[in-house]
What does this fold into?
Amino acid sequence: MALIDGLFGQSHYLAAKKMLDATALRHQAIAGNLANLETPGYKRVDLAPNFQEELNRAVSSTDGTALSQLRPSLAVDAAAAPGHDGNTVQLENELLQLSQNTLNHSLETQMVTSSLLRLRLAITGRPG
It folds into this structure.
C-alpha cells in the first residue's frame, strides 16, 4: 500500500491531476462563453489567472498538502475587450482557446496514464 500511496502522492502526478481538473473546468467555461456569444452584456469567463502561479508554488513547496488542497476556479476575464453590445466574447479567440485547451488535456491525460502504466508494470511485471 505504501508503494501505491507513494506513486499517487508524488508531486508530478498530483500536479497533472490538478491540471486535468483545470482543463476540464476551462472547457466548461469556453463552452459557456460560446453559448453566450450573442448575449448582450455577457462577460467572458476563464480559469482564474492566479491558478498557474498557485500550482507552481504548490509544486515547488515541500508541503504536500498545498498541492492536494489546490482547487481551480473561474473568474471574469478582465482583459477581454467589450464589443458594441458589451459582450466580451470573441468567436475566434474562443475557438483558439478551445483548441489549446484540448491539446493541454491530451498531454495531461498522457502524463497521468504514464503513471498508471508504471503502477501496472510494478504490479504485473508486464507493460501495458
Summary: The radius of gyration is 18 Å. The chain has a mean pLDDT of 87. The longest strand covers residues 45-47.
